[in-house]
Give the backbone structure.
Amino acid sequence: NAGVTQTPKFQVLKTGQSMTLQCAQDMNHNSMYWYRQDPGMGLRLIYYSASEGTTDKGEVPNGYNVSRLNKREFSLRLESAAPSQTSVYFCASKGQGATNEKLFFGSGTQLSVL
Amino acid sequence: GNSVTQMEGPVTLSEEAFLTINCTYTATGYPSLFWYVQYPGEGLQLLLKATKADDKGSNKGFEATYRKETTSFHLEKGSVQVSDSAVYFCALTSTDSWGKLQFGAGTQVVVTP
């Protein structure tokens, strides 16, 4: 019962490098989300996908792109990493329906940009 | 827009002490309110929720009551354990935000033996 799986768990990048964070869920959820977590700021939504084939910007989308590859997978790409993107990144998913508001989170990716 | 304000931490308590974490919110529409918990090295987990005014959410000895008149959703536990050490996040989603959660900044709780 894997739930939401994120890879990698840790990553160090140099400024200007690119990378993709992978996320997959096995709960047949329609909605998937990418958040970043910074000290004193809680979790902020980067991008989300309401369903397969759709993506929308969240609160802090600049510097990121996403792909909803299929229903299971939702990746986050940093094209040219900046030190301001040093953060912990969480992927989450949610089942369908207005009353089904529980998010399931992955264990996070700790990213450092030097 | 929607926002959530939590008391700052860290909150340090002795085992068996009473815990309160304050949370207030502003929201358009009809918000549902949540408490999520993050244990060290893990992702967030839903702790409890309340979907309408005066509802009380409860789980694992924690409780929170949705107070519309004071726009609050304070988390309480009568007797904490060392295993309750974690970061607690208050969050809301409203009918006009399409299920997107708005999180507070989080409150770290440290329980000592």
Q: What stands out?
A: Chain B has a mean pLDDT of 91. Chain B touches chain A through 23 residues (CB under 8 Å). The CA atoms of residues 10 and 97 of chain B lie 30 Å apart. DSSP finds no helices and twelve strands in chain B.
